[in-house]
């Protein structure tokens, strides 16, 4: 795991992860959110369980993503963690039964107010439909542009 952007005041974090197992990746990512006080310790088990029941993998054009999240009772401060994966990790595709996609970017959400979930998901879906923006996130080279992009989500 390597920290790239870590500005809690802007409500987003941006890290690179080298985990290849989905559950271990979710544990690592939720641990970052716990340490940064975005979520309660209960978030970790809750997000893993929710991903089992309601998968969040999305086969977007080129770079596939996942958007794991869980109930607001586990959240302290609203925000999100972008995890760029050095090696793709298999996630089940949202709203399917046993269809999978190799994910390269994970957006782990910490949503405090349920009414904000739809807004944040709409922003993420719009971002994920833009292959150039996803490539910008994946490469991690133009930090100022990445900061501007992530700032539009929350």
Automatic annotation (TrEMBL):
Domain PTS EIIA type-2 residues, every copy: 3-153
Stored SUPFAM superfamilies: Phoshotransferase/anion transport protein (SSF55804)
Signal sequence bounds: none
Highest taxon, organism lineage: Bacteria
Protein name: PTS EIIA type-2 domain-containing protein
Species of the source: Candidatus Enterococcus lowellii
């Amino acid at each position: 795991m390597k920290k790239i952007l870590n500005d809690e005041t802007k409500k987003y974090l941006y890290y690179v992860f080298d985990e290849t197992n989905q559950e271990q990746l979710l544990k690592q990512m939720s641990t970052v959110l716990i340490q940064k006080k975005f979520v309660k310790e209960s978030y970790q088990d809750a997000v893993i369980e929710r991903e089992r029941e309601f998968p969040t993998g999305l086969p977007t054009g080129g770079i596939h993503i996942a958007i794991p999240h869980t109930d607001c009772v586990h959240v302290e401060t609203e925000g999100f963690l972008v995890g760029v994966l050095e090696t793709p990790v298999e996630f089940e595709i949202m709203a399917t039964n046993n269809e999978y996609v190799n994910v390269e970017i994970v957006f782990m959400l910490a949503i405090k107010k349920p009414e904000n979930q739809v807004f944040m998901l709409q922003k993420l879906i719009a971002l994920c439909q833009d292959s150039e923006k996803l490539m910008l996130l994946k490469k991690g080279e133009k930090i100022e542009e990445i900061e501007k992009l992530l700032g539009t989500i929350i």
